[in-house]
Amino acid sequence: MEEDVVVLGPRLPRGSILERENFDGVVRFLDDSIRDDKKLVYISGFCSPALLAFYFRLYALFKVFLYAFRDGKITKCRFEGITFENLN
C-alpha cells in the first residue's frame, strides 16, 4: 500500500521507493478537513522536532490560502503534531 512519507536525509529521486519494515514517526496532519498523516523516515543528517513543527505549521497555512484562492472555499488544514517512534 502506498503512503505519504517525509524522508529526512539526502535527496532521493522523485518517485523513489523505500522498503521499510517500520517508520521513525508520524506527522499528524489535517488537509481539507480530512485526516492526511505522513509517515516519517529518518536516514541521516540534522533532525529538529521544532523545525519540523514550524515547517508543517507554515505548510498548513499555505494550504488554507491555496484552497481559498484556487477553489474559492474555506477549509481546515492543520498540523496536529509529530510522534517519534524509533528515532535514536
Q: What is the strand and helix layout of this fold?
A:
Blueprint (H helix, E strand, L loop, with lengths): L4 E4 L16 E7 L2 E2 L2 E5 L6 H23 L6 E7 L4
Parallel strand pairs: 1-4
Antiparallel strand pairs: 2-3, 2-4, 2-5
How would you briefly describe this protein structure?
With 88 residues, this protein is an alpha+beta fold. The protein has one helix at 49-71; strands spanning 5-8, 25-31, 34-35, 38-42, 78-84.
Characterise this structure.
With 88 residues, the protein is an alpha+beta fold. The two termini are 26 Å apart. The protein is built from 1 helix and 5 strands.
Question: What's the end-to-end separation, in Å?
Answer: 26 Å
H/E series: EEEEHE
Provide the helix percentage: 25-40%
How many domain modules? 1
Q: How many beta-strand segments?
A: 5
Structural class comes to: alpha+beta
Gyration radius, rounded: 14 Å
Separate helix tally: 1
Keywords, separated by commas or semicolons:
26% helix; globular; 5 strands; 1 helix
